[in-house]
Amino acid sequence: MEKIIKNPDFSDGEEILSEYLRRNFTVQVSGLCSVNYQGRAKSKLDRGERLVIKKQDSALLVHGPENYQPKNWQPEVDEWEVKAQEDELLLKARRKDPDEIVEIRFEDLEFLMVTQLVDSSDLKIRGHEIDIHESIEEDPKIVEEELKVVERERETPAGFIDVFARDSEGNYVVIEVKRNPDYNTVLQLQRYVDEIEDEFSLNVRGILVAPKMTDKVLDYLEERGLEFVGVEMEDVIASYETIDNSQKGLSDFNPDYEVD
Amino acid sequence: MEKIIKNPDFSDGEEILSEYLRRNFTVQVSGLCSVNYQGRAKSKLDRGERLVIKKQDSALLVHGPENYQPKNWQPEVDEWEVKAQEDELLLKARRKDPDEIVEIRFEDLEFLMVTQLVDSSDLKIRGHEIDIHESIEEDPKIVEEELKVVERERETPAGFIDVFARDSEGNYVVIEVKRNPDYNTVLQLQRYVDEIEDEFSLNVRGILVAPKMTDKVLDYLEERGLEFVGVEMEDVIASYETIDNSQKGLSDFNPDYEVD
DNA sequence: GCCTAGGTCCCGTGC
DNA sequence: GCACGGGGCCTAGGC
User: Fold this and answer.
1) What is the CATH number of domain B3-115?
2) Which residue is nearest to nucleotide C1 (CA to C1')?
3) Strand partners, A188
4) Can you tell me the distance from the alpha carbon of A253 to that of A250, in angstroms, rounded to the nearest whole number?
5) Where are the domains of chain A?
6) Residue B73 is nearest to which of A68, A115, A124, comparing CB atoms?
7) Which of A249, B8, B216, B49 is nearest to B17 (CA)?
8) Which CATH entry fits the domain spanning A129-238: 3.30.365.10, 1.25.40.10, 3.40.1350.10, 3.50.50.60?
9) pLDDT digit string (tens) for B177-224?
């Protein structure tokens, strides 16, 4: 930990923030504040105690005591302005594109902390839509017995077909994969099916493959003569071991701090 | 600030976390850790220094040194498990629905902080899509002269129509409003128009109302016989004063701390 | 409780 | 650089 100051006054705050906000440090400020935002929308947040975090890449988060999401934020800050006044510490964070500004006015500072986090590890994750595509290609019978995958990401004038296949009777099958299917998914599948039917002048099957489905979307699908096949995400998600194999043997954590 | 401990050992960590995680406190733990997640997907995050925040409603965030978004998280935790072991401090956060678990293994603790934030102010915001709906309802001529709004959020088998209206010639008009229109928006509008045409066996107009538009989406829209009308967000966003008027005169900040 | 749709979405990928 | 689509999306609003 570089620095922690409890109950700093506004001039302490101005000094520390001016020094560290623009640099490669994680800075926290907590205290009673109000926040205005203007940009793609406009918001006001009245006085309350919050935790403000400036990350090492300049991302700014204003977190209240609850919820996953920050109350205000700035994914990337281009210009900082810090000013101690008689009755407040003003912190402005401006972003250029889109042009937006977050203004935080602290009436009272509870603490101020400067640290530096070293983390070069990437998140390895399985269970994305792309992993379902791969499972189908490896083992098409999770969709249907005797299905043969012809092509992935087949391009049509209506967009890319996730998986293009033929069934045991030789029919063309268009497969659309979605983790979270909705009405638009149905129309998208419909468009691909229409496109392939035009191309081959044949009847074409359309199958939506997803780990879950709602009754209404299923109705909408079946009204159009399209089909649904469920998949188990557990079958799709690789084991921890498999994820492990994609990593290097040793962690690339490196304790050398980069200052600035 | 309730507590701050620098470089706590694992048994300190276990003690403090066991006491405070389940209660109405904001708890921060920072240090060298690795994180596993399993639930809707499965992920591994190798060792690195991170800031872990448990909010007062049990939301859990694992923030790396960069980016707006946490590397791992749990929007709501139902069960906590904390265990100091010889070489690590293990923190498990389980959620019941969906069933998922985040496991954080600390190899080294940099600091541990317990605070309590008091914030009962709501965020006042203007510029959401709903504000455009309201502008249209108040003054339909921003879309078209002599347009009459019939209904908002009209339900159809294909979903909800933002604004349902009739034009000067008595035609039905389906209006879809979007801040950020894209291809899917066109499909969505198409869905509604098709549904209303089926329902009334009439030709129905479809208008996409948005503050911006791209050439490709416009082409895609017009190919389908659908229309676009631009609106200015500035006309939609209320002034700060208007936002102010929606607030009570006095802040409802109350310095009484609720312990538990 | 499920379902629908928006978000200052953010963010990666492909053109 | 923009644009498109996914996300462990999250979250609010209806029913």
Assistant:
1) 2.70.180.20
2) B97
3) none
4) 9
5) 3-115, 129-238
6) A68
7) B8
8) 3.40.1350.10
9) 999 999 899 999 999 999 999 999 999 999 999 999 999 999 999 999
DSSP 3-state of A24: coil
CB contact under 8 A, B158 and A183: yes
Q: Residue holding tokens 């109000």?
A: A34
The torsion of the CA quartet A115, A119, A124, A130, rounded to 10 degrees, works out to: 80
Contact B62, B46 (CB under 8 A): no
Residue type present at position A103: E
**What φ, ψ does residue B14 adopt, rounded to 5°?**
-60, -45
Q: How far is B259 from chain A (nearest CA, A)?
A: 13
State yes or no: cis peptide before A181, omega within 30 of 0: no
| Cis, peptide link before residue B98, omega less than 30° from 0 | yes
Distance B129 CA to D13 C1' (A): 14
Of B111, B118, B238, the CB nearest to A1: B111
Of the pLDDT bands very low, low, confident and very high (cuts 50, 70, 90), residue A84 is: very high
Calpha distance B55→B116 (Å, rounded):
9
Identify the burial level of A247 via C-beta atoms within 10 angstroms of its C-beta, where 0-12 means exposed, 13-18 middle and 19 or more buried: middle
User: What's the Å distance between residue B96 CA and nucleotide C10 C1'?
Assistant: 26
Cβ(B12)–Cβ(B106) below 8 Å: no
Task: Note if the pTM is more than 0.90.
Answer: yes
**CA-to-CA separations, A61 to A70, A117, B208, in angstroms, rounded:** 6, 16, 34
Evaluate whether the domain defined by B129-237 bears CATH number 3.40.50.720: no
